[in-house]
Amino acid sequence: MPSKQRKIAVMGYRSVGKSSLSIQFVEGQFVDSYDPTIENTFTKSTRINSQDYELKLVDTAGQDEYSIFPSQYSIDVHGYVLVYSITSTKSFDVVKSIHEKLLDITGKGHVPVVLVGNKTDLHMERMISAEEGKRLADEWKAIFLETSAKQNAVSSFHNMANGI
Ligand SMILES: Nc1nc2c(ncn2[C@@H]2O[C@H](COP(=O)(O)OP(=O)(O)OP(=O)(O)O)[C@@H](O)[C@H]2O)c(=O)[nH]1
């Protein structure tokens, strides 16, 4: 079977771990230094259920509620990984706001999303329960998972490519 190409935008509030998740996935390592992203594209070939995929991950700059949705991410993108940190209520609000803008700009009732609650290793600082995350994903008919870029991020992107 020929390889399928998938472009996935990784979006969320600043410092939730978008770059760390992307680097984890592509390079299999965790980078502890913090370098605010402008925009970075990663490509990786992967095989899921005997289908080859050429994944293009666009690691976007951190958004907030007031950001205008960057219109380049509404075109030509197959799916979205919306990332929040389980330690930040603000970041959870920001994914809601991004999702709303996404529906608005695409004019669709549903967009393919994987909602990712990151930084599960920081369980002492947890502000958002897994149930809250799951509830939100159900509302969106999205895939939900919690992860830690410090531990393992691969599954979020496998799910993403598989679900769209
Ligand atoms: N403990 C812990 N720290 C994490 C995790 N993921 C990311 N970090 C740390 O959080 C900080 C921000 O991570 P980034 O991956 O740069 O976050 P980002 O969302 O890409 O940030 P912007 O590009 O500024 O929007 C870094 O210091 C990371 O090392 C995680 O799962 N657990």
Automatic annotation (TrEMBL):
It catalyses: GTP + H2O = GDP + phosphate + H(+). SMART domains: RAB, RAS, RHO. NCBIfam families: small_GTP. Coiled coil: none annotated. Belongs to the small GTPase superfamily. Rheb family. GO terms for molecular function: GTP binding; GTPase activity; metal ion binding. Keywords: GTP-binding, Hydrolase, Lipoprotein, Magnesium, Membrane, Metal-binding, Methylation, Nucleotide-binding, Prenylation. This is Uncharacterized protein. InterPro entries: P-loop_NTPase, Small_GTP-bd, Small_GTPase, Small_GTPase_Ras-type. One of its GO terms (cellular component) is endoplasmic reticulum membrane. It is found in: Endoplasmic reticulum membrane. One of its GO terms (biological process) is signal transduction. It is a lipid-anchor. SUPFAM superfamilies: P-loop containing nucleoside triphosphate hydrolases.
